[in-house]
Amino acid sequence: MGDIATGAAPALDECRIDSVDVHAFELPTDGPDGKEQDGTLEWDSTTMVLVRVHAAGRTGVGYTYGDVSAATFLSGELAPLLTGRSPAAPPVLWELMGRQIRNAGRPGLGAMAVSAVDIALWDLKARLLDVPLVHALPAHHDRVPVYGSGGFTNYSLDRLAEQLAGWTEQGIGRVKLKTSRDPGQDPRRLTAVREAIGDEPELFTDANGALGRKEALYWAHRFQAEWDVRWFEEPVSSADIEGLRMLREHGPARLEVAAGEYAYTTRDFVNLVEGAAVDCLQADVTRCGGITGLLEVAGLSAARHLDLSAHCAPAVSAHAFCAVRRLRHLEYFHDHVRFEHLVFDGTLSPVDGALRPDTGRPGLGLDVKWADAEPHRVHGERPA
């Protein structure tokens, strides 16, 4: 059976979760020599941990990106907790899952596993109601602006320029490249990109926490003055609240400091906000506790008058971040776009620089393409 079902379903309050199955797939990168790099990491593949929750003939789909061990964690700690429970209120189950993983570890792997299940539960609820997920959420928007993201540090200048210019030619007005692995090489990389995209598109950079405080401050001024960079993501480690605040206070006025993609709990976001560490907050729906966790972060950002930017996972974020009042944009990340187009039918493509949820399909509108995904399986078994 596909993940998108038709026909009448019983009343939501009468439904009970029948079963949960967990899968993981690993997709090699398409970078030089099969690798991609940023300021602090090199990798040769990306792993998606996918969970499906079944009730009343409907199937909700959720996922996170991380090590395959998250699939084992999810199978052992969370899946048994859900069977027989009502899918009517995902936040209720979110609370139960948070308690279940207390001693196993909530931040990191635990939060990612909970995120995947929570997404699946919201998707399931929307499918049981036969509405698109965006209509099951307190939506403020009907579209999510995107920025093209890739520009890995091991790309040749030609590929770097081609990739980022390709996004601007598609009508995406913002693009981002990775920096700071070898800072001395960044001027020629930034020059190649700026020449390729022209003066009008906004140019973003991401150091992935590679720099020290003073070094980051030096590059912040150069980035803005020489290449009109408007966004400096994780110039220092996101754990360095004081360093991020220093960059905000002493960096160029037109260069925003961003962080939050590695925040797992609501308290992680509170620390960034109370520390005056960012100009724009980021959240990853596949890490921050799923859609339920994201709604808490959205309330925090609105209360503190901070915009919230979506980190990756476009197939989910296009729906989920419509419920963020202080929405800024979504990172349309090269690796996740490749992966989601491979694994799912029903993925979205940017139109006029934004993703608009498909309101003609229930839930997230995704159906797993098992035949295409199967060669990449590293956990679980293909459904019969």
What does this entry look like structurally?
The protein is an alpha/beta fold and 384 residues long. It folds into two domains: 12-130 and 370-379, Enolase-like, N-terminal domain (Enolase-like, domain 1, 2-Layer Sandwich), CATH 3.30.390.10; 135-355, TIM Barrel (Alpha-Beta Barrel), CATH 3.20.20. It has helices spanning 69-82, 90-100, 109-129, 133-136, 157-169, 186-197, 213-227, 241-250, 266-274, 290-303, 314-320, 334-343, 370-373; strands spanning 19-28, 36-37, 42-43, 45-55, 58-65, 144-150, 174-178, 202-206, 229-233, 256-259, 280-283, 307-310, 327-333, 344-345, 354-355, 367-368, 377-379. An eight-stranded parallel beta barrel has the order 6-7-8-9-10-11-12-13, surrounded by seven helices. Helix 1 (69-82) packs across helix 2 (90-100) and helix 7 (213-227) packs parallel to helix 8. 52% of the residues are buried.
Summarize this structure as a short list of keywords or feature phrases.
384 residues, 8-stranded parallel beta barrel, alpha/beta, TIM Barrel, Enolase-like, domain 1, 2 domains, 17 strands, 38% helix, single chain, 4-stranded antiparallel sheet
Strand order, sheet with most strands: 6-7-8-9-10-11-12-13
At the fourth level of CATH, the homologous superfamily of the largest domain is Enolase-like C-terminal domain
- Through-space gap between termini: 8 Å
Overall average residue pLDDT: 96
Strand count, sense and barrel status of the largest sheet are: 8 strands, parallel, barrel
Global outline: globular
Number of helices: 13
Percent helix range: 25-40%
Q: What is the string of SSEs from the N terminus onward?
A: EEEEEHHHHEHEHEHEHEHEHEHEHEEEHE
Do you know the CATH topology of the largest domain?
TIM Barrel
Low-confidence stretches: none
Q: What's the architecture of the largest domain in CATH terms?
A: Alpha-Beta Barrel
The Cα radius of gyration reads 20 Å
